[in-house]
Amino acid sequence: MDRFGEPAAVFAAPTPDLLTVEGITPRLAAAIRQRAGDDTFGQGEVDNAHRLDCHIVTQADHRYPALLLQIPDPPPYLYVLGDTAAFPVAVAVVGSRHATAYGLSTTRRLSSDLARQGVTVVSGLARGIDTAAHEGALQGGGHTVAVLGSGLAKIYPRENADLCRRIAEKGAVVSEFPLEAGPEAHHFPQRNRIISGMSLGTVVVEATRRSGSLITARMALEQNREIFAVPGSVNSYKSMGTHALIKEGAKLVTHVGDILEELPPIGIPPTGPSAPHSDRPPVAVALEGEEKVVFDALSPYPTHVDDLTRQVNIDPGRVVGILLTLELQGLVRQEAGKLFHRSDDACWASDQETNNR
Prior knowledge:
There is one protein chain. The chain is an alpha/beta fold. It folds into 3 domains: 1-47, no CATH class; 85-260, Rossmann fold, CATH 3.40.50; 284-355, Arc Repressor Mutant, subunit A (Orthogonal Bundle). 40% of the residues lie in helices and 13% in strands. The protein contains 15 helices and 12 strands. It has helices at residues 7-12, 15-18, 26-36, 43-51, 101-116, 129-139, 161-170, 187-197, 212-222, 240-247, 256-260, 289-297, 305-312, 316-328, 344-355; strands spanning 55-58, 77-82, 90-94, 120-123, 144-147, 171-175, 201-204, 226-229, 251-252, 303-304, 332-335, 339-342. The strands form 2 sheets. It has a 9-stranded mixed β-sheet, with helices on both faces. It has a 3-stranded antiparallel β-sheet with strand order 10-12-11.
């Protein structure tokens, strides 16, 4: 932009002029010239970008994600809504659109803890794990970046429009597609290379063997980035993909420290509450008697109340009362179908107690 003044001038410039700009390679210049002849990109597109208050960031722009420039096929330019300062230190968190309660709660916890450590969480705004990743980062008081498989004027899925707005306020919403481009099926594998490409590593929380998030993991591997996977139940087909990644060498993740220790020193201050997490509830091991028995029988995975009752051998009515008490204390969460599991904070507290032994 320093050389040409405005986006429209970049796309109107002849190839020799483009090549005079530091950072524009012959390949990039050719891509820009090809785009200049595309009817979808013209003054109207630039005007729409201004109307939406989004930036058009080329590879020659200092705001372009530095890590993304290192991949074999970076987009010639990006449409960016929000703050491009959110780009520098990022980790991708991806997974199933049809996630379990365990997957969603684990994603929120990991993303929130990453955000508190000053790491930007990158995901794809899809339903399920992606949505939980963005929400967790926002809850942690940090930055998050959503990479879309559609144009910025066609937010998909529509129910995430408000989330998209909140992301832009605390991070950025990014797309390589024209503003009015719809969510075509072939766009999503294409955008996955951006999710992994602008991240130091990719965390897969839940994935079947045919999940699109495995495409993101494969691309991360090809881009020489770190791959992490969260284990799930051996009985859950929604974790078969993550278990396969672990067998193939992905690092197993149970808490944020497993991710941070594999990243290079990032030299940035935490953005949220300090490490002790003083706002967390009491550590669960302080429970006594039947309350401790019931809590110890629970895990991050949802358990039906009837199965729990048989396991602890306590009167069913008493078990329900104990579960209600634990839920009021913030240690247990109830899902539809009389399913109960440890809350995010209880899982964190339990992990801390284990680490301190």
